[in-house]
Amino acid sequence: MKLTVSGIEDGNPAPEKFAFGVFNEDDHMSFGANRSPEMIWDQVPEGTRSFAIVMFDPDVPSIADDANQEGKTVSKDIPRVDFFHWLLVDIPARMRCLPEGEDSDGVIPKGKGSGGGPVGVRGLNSFTQFLAGNPDMAGTYFGYDGPCPPWNDELLHHYHYEVHALDIETLGLSGEFDGASVRNAMKGHVLASARVIGTYTLNPDLPECQR
Predict the structure, then answer these.
(1) pLDDT for 2-31, tens place per residue?
(2) What's the rounded Cα separation, in Å, for the pair 125 and 195?
(3) Which segment of the chain is annotated as a signal peptide (predicted)?
(4) Domain of 121: which CATH number?
(5) Residue 42's domain spans which residues?
(6) Is residue 47 one of the residues assigned to a domain?
(7) Is 188 left (phi over 0), alpha (psi -120 to 50) or beta?
(8) How buried is 77 (Cβ within 10 angstroms: 0-12 exposed, 13-18 middle, 19+ buried)?
(9) Does the residue 211 lie in any domain?
(10) Roughly how many angstroms between the first and final C-alpha of the chain, as a whole number?
(11) Which of 35, 78, 148, 193 is most buried per CB count within 10 Å?
């Protein structure tokens, strides 16, 4: 299976328009356009009955005490964990693309709703936990919300955009299901997968080639 994420060449920086947070000289970070990217997939295997889109960042620090703190840095040596940015499942087998901005077009404080997305069913992304302590932003974040790594992180972040062809019409998930639930439900049902990786950072101290 082949996947194209418009505007992102595999292994290269993702455009700011897809980001939840963009660099700001005065405050380190401000809200970005947060548009979901156009996804186009083909070379689909026979027997495909639905698709699932999963986007995640495997470079999120497992200990976030120093994240976005003045005078501190997030060491590149801290163990990293997956942070899910986009979960969209039960996409009909007839689909071969999702237009830009279809599942997100701007930052929505307290998050987007659950249930049906542009197609399929939205899952709960990891901003739900990350923003839980922020009274202005806390809420349930479903569907797509883009890159927003700590602005003081020494590590460049890699964003994995994936499409999975499945042999079932539905994963049977509803409500506040998360990335782990999607991965568990897909086990034994994946006929083929495709991935594009885009990089992103808000740290101006990282080399120019990484920004």
Answers:
(1) 999 999 999 999 999 999 999 998 999 999
(2) 19
(3) none
(4) 3.90.280.10
(5) 2-206
(6) yes
(7) left
(8) exposed
(9) no
(10) 29
(11) 148
